[in-house]
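Memo to structure team: turn this sequence into structure tokens by end of day. - J.P.
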Amino acid sequence: MNIQLKTQGIAATRLLAGKVSLVTGSTSGIGLGIARALAAAGSVVVLNGLGAQPEIAKTRKQIEAEFGVGVGYSAADMTSREAIAEMIATAVASHGRLDILVNNAGIQHVAPLEQFPVEKWDAILSINLSSAFHTTRLALPAMRQNRFGRIINIASAHGLVASPFKAAYVAAKHGVVGLTRVTALETAEDGITCNAICPGYVYTPLVEAQIDGQAKAHGISREQVIHDVLLAQQPNKRFATVEELGALTVFLASDAAASITGVALPVDGGWTAH
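Reply from structure team:
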């Protein structure tokens, strides 16, 4: 689905003109879709994440050309407190403000509890949970100064329910939901909101590769993998899209959502309604 088509309506309203947004883990997939939606709504955007520098530079130029906003980039390692601190400080110094923080960076590993590699546990907790704590605590002073802030944490349906073999991911995403609620309570009188978006399966290039891999491994069709394996828990039997998540993020960042805070919003096709 073409992101440009989905964001044209947002772009026409420029809901976030004059705002500055930082999206972690935004050089591909969900994070990039959210960054594009924020840019389409008029916000300056700071990208963060992994990737080849020429490809990242190309992405920045494309967003700037399409939406007429500035696009920065930080290569900050989300496992490093020092790198995160430098990223936030640079964003604030460069733009004089930081209005919207989207904590999206995340990794995954699947294994039974007794076989779960300890180093994978540590890495997942660090990137998926601790990085959101560090970005939030460091962004709050600038938001409090302007009496405006929108912190949007990309959690997961696994922040609300569990699945086997995903101990670290489920623990981290439950932690993100808890951090969201605490942040909302501590900032409720300061013009700042904090909410979590909890997607089920979202269609990205990584999921596309997973479909093909499982189809070959199990000798079944793509359709069976999608319907019976990946989307087994999603009653609507369709992937969410990065465009849907981008549009929801823009809404939560807008003035219209000023009274929505401390909420974990499922975007899971009914998964957590069971």
